[in-house]
Fold these 3 entries.
Entry 1:
Amino acid sequence: MSSEQQAAGVGDLLSFDLTEQPWLPVLRTDGSTTDLSLRQVFAQAGEIRRLVGDLPTQDFALIRLLLAIVHDAVDGPEDTEQWAELWEDEAPFEPVGGYLDTHRERFDLLHPAAPFFQTAGLRTSKDEVFSLNRIVADVPNGEAFFTMRFPGAERITFAEAARWTVHAHGYDTSGIKSGTVGDPRAKAGKAYPQGVGWAGSIGGVLAEGHTLRETLLLNLIAADAGIVRTTGKDRPAWRREPCGPGAASDLAGRPHGIRDLYTWQSRRLRLHFDAQGVYGVVLSYGDPLSVQDRQTQEPMTGWRRSPAQEKKLGRPLVYMPREHDPARAAWRGLAALIADRDQDTSAAGEPANALRPGIVHWLAHLTTERFLPKDTLVRLHTYGAVYGTQQSVTEEITEDGVAVALVLLHETDRHLGQCAIDAVADADRAVKALGSLAGDLARAAGSEGDTSRNAALDLGYAALDHAYRTWLSSLASGDDPQERRAEWQRIARAEIRTTGRQLIAQAGQKAWAGRLVSGPKGEVWLCSDQAALWFAAGLKRALPLAAPAADPALNGEADAPEPPKVHA
């Protein structure tokens, strides 16, 4: 039965109860997919691999919703011992069933007075109803050719509308929106930019286990760990008074904790629907939340020190969320994920330039205190959104992840973690040598080297991507860091040498013949053979632990590429 048919009617009123109706898409451990209700997701969490929503960012937003429910249902965990009891419990989410019964009314998507994550009666002065394109994020503004919903999202099911409602609070764009009646911030029918949704302002990081049960528990941070600040007023949105059209009046000192933050109402939203589904929306700004210095409140992102913000705000120390670079694979930013919080301090005792995500610090705590084995394998899953044109459009959604053994996060034994970070630096140097080779080959052929160099950098990182992830996931307690790093350098050397040979073979007749170019020590005859010699030397410097005692140059007898054939 479809989601439209499952909307229950009471008199002339419709209801879509998220605790009972299926709306969360999941991938089961047996490979099948289905939609489940909130109650079913928690009851079957051990049989679910992960959520599989409409976008990766939607999965991240929904996981945070589920975490807020668990935190509130168990009222904690207050300490790591309570967390350990949940980890060992065959039914850790049993309290959630009764909790959902208690708050069931607030989980009704279509409730007339307190619809889930919406503002009842929200309207513009002209009673306009807008296209669902405003919340359905896979319909790019002005890029209708890149969506399956051409020309737009005209009507969606209640289940899908619920998912996009949660996503809008986390990832909605900025820009000018519709002013709503009763919102004192509205001017001439317009609501002026207040920034993107909270999750859109951070570089999301989630610890992912083998099942949804493990994922939820791994991200369930105990209060006594000292990672996030929590007050006695911490509660999720459904345990607060329903939002009016304006900003909440109690924002001072908030968010009060994880439950408050994970359900932050950054937008005011009202769905328009009939018995067949949702066909329109009213959307405006909700509760503002500044991004500066939230590192003790938001555990699912890394942080960077911002001299620009320090100067602007006149404060000696300001941290900003570390966003993900869509052009940079997650493993290349591994240091920002796993480096210890105080590792990046200067000799003079300056504050850290970067802080790793609180969730990683929590995993390190579980390992260091021996609540989890060192060889427990966890995937650090990253999520992000890239905005353009003053954050008014979503340009790109980013998603990646790296599997790491928890021993890499150990706070008192950092050797393997440092080995993994050093291996990324090894990869960077090796790829740089490959880029230099491509630039030299281009110059030998008489063209500019920048374009070829940049293309080669992409090739190099692509060649190392799978190899590094596989090597990283194999690191285990008891490994010798020096031996494992030497192993990685041998792997990287083999991959980059292979790619280098391909570049040399494809360089063409002009590069093989060469020409006279200016060098740091005067003019030199540059040809593909000379470029190969320089590349071999550069690779040896980049990966010294991998170089054999007698390292044949790429243009040596064993490795010499055949010169391009000359046709009469």
Entry 2:
Amino acid sequence: MTVPDGWLRGWDRALLAQFTVATHDQALMAALPVRFSALRMLALCGRTVIVDEVHALPAFMRQTLSRLLHWLGAMGCPVVLLSATLPGDISSQLVRSYLDGAGHPHSATAHLDCRPAYPGWLYAAASDASLIRIDPAAAEAHADHHRRGADLRLHPVRHSSCTDPEDTPARESRLERITQEIAPVARSGGCAAVYCATMADAQTTYTHLHTALDWPDGGPDGQLLLLHARLPGHRREALTRRIRTALASAGERPGRLVVVTTSLLDMSLDIDVDVVVSDLAPLHTLLQRLGRLWRFDHIKRPAWLSSDRPRLIVLDPTDHRGRTLLPPAWRPLDSPFLPLATAAYLARRPEQPLTLPDDVQQLVEAVHGDADALARTDAALRRSHTLHQARTRTEEHHSALHLVPTWHDTLSLSDLHRQNLHPREAATRLGSMPRRLLPVYRTPDGRLTLDAAGTQPLPEHRKPTTAQIRTILQHTLPVPAAWVASRARDHHVPAPWRSHALLADLVLLSQDAGDPTRPARFGRHRLHLDDALGLVHTED
């Protein structure tokens, strides 16, 4: 029997829908010489491509996006790039890549001022490389409608990773400061968000607030929520939906709600809170979080909020001399220069409120744009800036090694697949990707289930259906690859799954249904689950 090839029956066919909403990676794969990249390029051809939150892309992904914009310009696809905190040099790079693909080389567009027009828009015409900006009167009217004052305050705190000499006076710790800021919310009502740098910090903060504050109305259950990326997919989706509904502009607002999270609530969420406390982060991230503070004018603020403008508390981890000292657990995150430069800039900034949106672009350029002037103010910051620039150039170089050539250098279709890359080598993100771990429970009769109650059996003896695959993936957890690098044979996926692209790489975390917290061993690592905190990692 003649049947359609798997190329058209696979999961990638969703990209061919009339309207497609996906992550950046799904589109960026079209600029890599990997399997089905032609299908992805076909899905983008003839569409209007909208890329949201462009500033959040690291240098590695930004280089891939530049090559994709080059090809979209060559195919005549309209592109919309959205961001409220995009530096001018990155904006110029992306716009010129698109115009280069449309037939206007960099030498012909070098004189163009492609800096973002925030608030407003910048239009670059592919036909003649002309630029049109929003009318100044319209931009001022838009800014005046949304203009408000805000405080961005830096508070030095002692982080748990800091080691002070014995004769150092006691100082306020990170958890003490968070407790002080959230106590009025727990006592008198309101909505607050606590942004933590790592998932471990979020778990620790949640546990501390759960016990350190006096929660009325039956305790913290339902009033204190923990949301991070290492929760099972079905729980994370339910929590995100609940937060979006509770903190939206319409509907009934809860009398008291505190959300402890990482970076999941930074962008693309139309929510409003009364109080925000954040760990030190890059300045564009803090500005995004500031956008969730007093977002809606019609919301009635709690009576205990005496300030007439929103206030974002930034926790600056310091050593015993008061200098910014990033905890060791933050090293796998973004470049250390960005939070260090943010702390240095905020410390030197005069004590005056921000004016939004007028001051946004100036703040972004000071840290994320040309930061040479800021780096020259301190020797340690200058060294960090040099390492940051080297790291950025290295990421861009590694990304360029695996990209498809430009259309000027493409002589045949074979040039788009001239590299024989392993799927893990040609990736849209630099570094080792996280592994997907599937917690399963072993019942007394030996069955494996997705829940401790044994109501959702794990399909093992036949090929899973589409609905079963979705359920399985919703119960998985992303964990660092090193945690399961030396997995035992018992932790491999069932044999019927190994031929399935989405399930073949799963790692099973098997535990007794009667004791779901009993750790499972993976080499030097022990992993166990906690329903309140998500996955907890303990190293031997």
Entry 3:
Amino acid sequence: MGGLRELAGSFVVPGPCGVAVRDRLKDLTPQDERVLRAVGAHQGALASGDLKARCADGLGHGADTWAARKRELTARSSSRIAGAITKATHDQWALARRCQAAHIQSLAAGIRTLRHRLSLPVGEKGTKRAAGGYRSKGEWFRKSRRLAALEARHAAAVADWQAGRVRVVRGGKRLLNTRHHLTRARLTEEQWRQRWEAERWFIAADGESGKRFGNETIRVTPDGEVSIKLPAPLAHLANTRHGRYTLTATVAFAHRGAEWADRITANRAVAYRVHLDTGRGRWYLTASWQRPAVKTVPLETARARGMIGVDTNADHFAAYRLDRHGNPVGGPRRFGYDLSGSAGHRDAQIRHALTRLINWAVRAGVAAIGIEDLDFTAEKTREKHGRRKRFRQLVSGIPTGKLKARLVSMAAEHGLSIVAVDPAYTSQWGGQHWQKPLATPHRTMSRHDAAGIAIGRRALGHPIRRRTAPPPHDRSDRAGHRTAQAGPGTPGREGTRPPTTDRPPGGPSPSGTRTREPSASNTVRDAPSTQQWVQDSLMRTG
């Protein structure tokens, strides 16, 4: 492709494999809260100790060490609670390993960029595909020192990876660092302590198929009654038989309540988690379960009724509807959102924009939405983008992972498929081939709107350009229709003929026929020209 990178093929994104719903535990008594706090603190301490033991095992972990840890926890709680704690510990350790690998890749990308730019002469200009040399000797010196720092950090991270050593903070590293900046966070020490303890609690239980209502540790009846199996040291706090404590509050899942009720009625596995929102002073119960793996629809089926191409930007989705032949239908649509503020605000903005996009797709009657397969893992470093701080903030501010997960799960509920395409050159080629042709006095086309068309055409399997090959035989000049305008001397070319000035207006043409004399102008726009243009009959070929 002449220096362009090879494009990856489009594919249908697999559907969601799990469901989670949440409801508030209202009207809890002081005794209920004391029991929940005691259970959370006790099991949280067990989870912290188990995570410490798992991190100490490193790569030497095996089935025997897992069984030994579980036996030790069972004596201090119960078998089911010990199983939930060890499973959560392994998930957290695995997540830390994945984050460690991503950190190593990010450091390696920065080192490569720094080495390349330091190898160039000072002041050498860069290109669109590669940055040039640094602008001064002082900047070159500072970057050489940063290269040494990154290499040291990379070597330390690789050594940790090879040794199986991870660093995990139960409760979150960000919240831990907030302890040193309470004034900036507008928190008192007591408020921070309450939040820190709540984040380190552990009140969760995995589901078990075949057991009553799908969970023996945290049981929720169809009427919404919640009961918890207390660990052995807290059995004296039970208010019902078999060491269970029943809360006075009841739950009723408004979202997916019927699906949840069907599962617990059939005694199918449902996992539960109880947590405290210290900012609001509210307790919540989250129920989650897995869905059976559903085979994705074939790509041709997803393309059958057209596509909606979506271009993801820093503050809006630019969408355009296309028919199955790749032709734009209607006008561009934009769904805005604001990614500033807190994480909850950003998440709500993304959900609202996706809801409007999916509702429009359902009304349009399409079967799929085409979107870019964005991944900025190695594209956020300042070594990659230099002084373009605003662009780095823009790239870092787009929550690509959360956006993908939410779009797939929300679209699946409406029977829509998601087709992921390679994002390469969509904005460039869309602006080149679609922005100007679709612009009208009453419709403004932006580069993002044109990119939406490019994404949709790529998802449909069509090239982004409108015309790249001659038509089939017996159309136009028997497959001689050209993609570019031919020169004036080419026989059979398409377009208007050059002006003829060797005969008077209305006089005979070279073929002997007489043309009609031009009529008088009726409008200012049709004012007569000083030069008369005459259209000859086109040469017939074939």
